[in-house]
């Protein structure tokens, strides 16, 4: 018995000496290293900065504090005892984004949480799998594929504008624009990516956008509860975990039904692809082959469909609702965009492919909108080798991120960063800044593959709205931006839409 006790004691002491104490020493060194990094507020001894990201605070105000208090080009946000180390300046962002380091998918990391939702699609996969799939999917975003989508954007806008007109015709002083924009961007992605015609915009209570919204809300709340973040099994025991599982099962099932239907159609008539006027995203996924002749599995196809459905719908939704908010808040800028749209399109109702490059003021407006309300605020890499940033060497195994939202509000990068000034993106002004000063779609080898798709969609839909309606902000309605997977208004955004003569 004494011998057994001695052996157990020796193992415990050895573990403490060789594992626990070195880990605590490294943690202490990390804390000292991060001491002078920017933070969003006072550091709670147990919760860190978690309270700065709940639904009672404006998330953009939190980002403003991070940007304004930075004593370096890095920031540290503590979720309980776990620091999120992030670049908040173009110089440090460039080093991280140009590296080939993978995204962290281990327990407790953001991409581990996302994988239960969108699987191992382009946003979350790493290494050879990511490289293979990126090459296979790149043709889906060629200009020849994107060009016909402009007609789809216009058809989606037709329905949206008529819905807005009908709601204003009831005599309402103002209407909440958010739900209808969400249905419109979902309609767009379903038509363009999956050739799905389901009258989505006519279904006010369609479960897909509501479910995506709930998933986004649950993921953020999970990040703010450390024991839920670290343990999937513990999370599944909670009411939130059960709700989350129900939501992702619905989203996965939605995609699987569309994929199965397309497989049946192709099996019944293999000539469908050759007879189609255009191949959509799903066609390309199903027919893509790598150098060895292997295609994507059903699970890989579903992961990419889920990824593109979420990224293509939710980010465009966020960008457009905040663009309309800024239209109402800054009527002079709205008038400048309106005049340009009228000059470019003339008497035509539809915006055409050739018009997109001519809508320069509109593009600057949308870029300034994305600077202030960057839909996806951060990205993270897991270092495979030591990296030096701001005089500190971070060892391999450290998770290092870039906070686009804070970088875009950094007073060292933009004068008066809280002011809305589209002229920042005049060519002569943009040329004075680093290419990494404006990165709403990330940068480097893992930049957003669908950025041209969403920018074209935003230009068409915003142009169509502003040409038909004058947007007037409801000043009595409280707009509180809160953190989700994209930045969303907790209470919606209300505007009055006045028909132009």
UniProtKB/TrEMBL annotation:
<dbReference type="GO" id="GO:0016705">
    <property type="term" value="F:oxidoreductase activity, acting on paired donors, with incorporation or reduction of molecular oxygen"/>
</dbReference>
<dbReference type="InterPro" id="IPR050196">
    <property type="entry name" value="Cytochrome_P450_Monoox"/>
</dbReference>
<dbReference type="GO" id="GO:0005506">
    <property type="term" value="F:iron ion binding"/>
</dbReference>
<comment type="similarity">
    <text>Belongs to the cytochrome P450 family.</text>
</comment>
<dbReference type="InterPro" id="IPR036396">
    <property type="entry name" value="Cyt_P450_sf"/>
</dbReference>
<dbReference type="Pfam" id="PF00067">
    <property type="entry name" value="p450"/>
</dbReference>
<keyword id="KW-0479">Metal-binding</keyword>
<feature type="transmembrane region" description="Helical">
    <location>
        <begin position="6"/>
        <end position="25"/>
    </location>
</feature>
<keyword id="KW-0408">Iron</keyword>
<feature type="binding site" description="axial binding residue">
    <location>
        <position position="448"/>
    </location>
    <ligand>
        <name>heme</name>
    </ligand>
</feature>
<keyword id="KW-1133">Transmembrane helix</keyword>
<dbReference type="GO" id="GO:0020037">
    <property type="term" value="F:heme binding"/>
</dbReference>
<keyword id="KW-0349">Heme</keyword>
<protein>
    <submittedName>
        <fullName>Cytochrome P450 4B1</fullName>
    </submittedName>
</protein>
<keyword id="KW-0472">Membrane</keyword>
<dbReference type="GO" id="GO:0004497">
    <property type="term" value="F:monooxygenase activity"/>
</dbReference>
<dbReference type="InterPro" id="IPR002401">
    <property type="entry name" value="Cyt_P450_E_grp-I"/>
</dbReference>
<keyword id="KW-0812">Transmembrane</keyword>
<dbReference type="InterPro" id="IPR001128">
    <property type="entry name" value="Cyt_P450"/>
</dbReference>
């Amino acid at each position: 018995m004494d011998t057994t006790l001695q052996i157990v004691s020796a193992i415990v002491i050895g573990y403490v000496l060789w594992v626990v104490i070195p880990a605590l020493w490294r943690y202490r060194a990390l804390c000292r290293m991060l001491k002078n990094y920017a933070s969003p507020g006072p550091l709670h001894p147990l919760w860190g900065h978690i309270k700065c990201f709940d639904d009672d605070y404006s998330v953009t105000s939190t980002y403003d504090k991070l940007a304004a208090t930075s004593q370096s080009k890095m920031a540290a946000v503590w979720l309980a005892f776990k620091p999120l180390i992030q670049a908040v300046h173009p110089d440090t962002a460039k080093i991280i984004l140009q590296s080939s380091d993978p995204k962290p998918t281990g327990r407790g990391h953001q991409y581990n949480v996302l994988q239960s939702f969108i699987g191992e699609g382009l946003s979350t996969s790493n290494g050879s799998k990511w490289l293979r799939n990126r090459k296979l999917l790149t043709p889906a975003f060629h200009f020849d594929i994107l060009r016909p989508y402009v007609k789809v954007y216009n058809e989606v806008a037709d329905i949206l504008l008529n819905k807005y007109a009908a709601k204003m015709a009831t005599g309402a002083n103002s209407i909440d624009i958010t739900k209808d924009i969400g249905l419109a961007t979902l309609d767009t992605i379903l038509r363009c990516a999956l050739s799905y015609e389901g009258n989505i915009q006519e279904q006010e209570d369609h479960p897909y956008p509501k479910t995506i919204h709930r998933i986004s809300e649950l993921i953020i709340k999970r990040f703010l509860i450390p024991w839920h973040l670290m343990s999937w099994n513990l999370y599944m025991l909670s009411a939130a975990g059960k709700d989350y599982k129900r939501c992702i099962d619905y989203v996965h099932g939605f995609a699987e039904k569309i994929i199965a239907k397309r497989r049946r159609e192709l099996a019944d008539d293999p000539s469908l692809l050759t007879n189609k006027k255009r191949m959509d995203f799903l066609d390309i996924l199903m027919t893509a082959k790598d150098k060895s002749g292997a295609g994507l599995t059903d699970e890989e196809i579903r992961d990419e469909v889920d990824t593109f459905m979420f990224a293509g719908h939710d980010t465009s939704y966020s960008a457009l609702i905040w663009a309309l908010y800024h239209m109402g808040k800054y009527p002079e800028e709205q008038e400048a965009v309106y005049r340009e749209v009228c000059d470019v399109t003339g008497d035509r109702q539809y915006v055409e492919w050739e018009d997109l490059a001519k809508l320069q003021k509109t593009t600057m407006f949308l870029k300034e909108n994305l600077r202030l309300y960057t839909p996806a605020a951060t990205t993270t890499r897991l270092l495979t080798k030591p990296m030096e940033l701001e005089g500190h060497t971070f060892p391999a195994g450290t998770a290092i991120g870039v906070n686009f939202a804070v970088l875009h509000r950094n007073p060292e990068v933009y004068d008066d960063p809280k002011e809305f000034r589209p002229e920042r993106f005049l060519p002569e002004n943009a040329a004075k800044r680093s290419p990494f000063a404006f990165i709403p779609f990330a940068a480097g080898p893992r930049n957003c593959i669908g950025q041209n798709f969403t920018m074209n969609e935003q230009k068409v839909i915003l142009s169509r709205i502003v040409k038909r309606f004058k947007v007037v902000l409801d000043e009595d309605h409280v707009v509180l931006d809160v953190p989700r997977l994209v930045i969303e208004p907790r209470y919606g955004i209300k505007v009055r839409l006045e028909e132009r003569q």
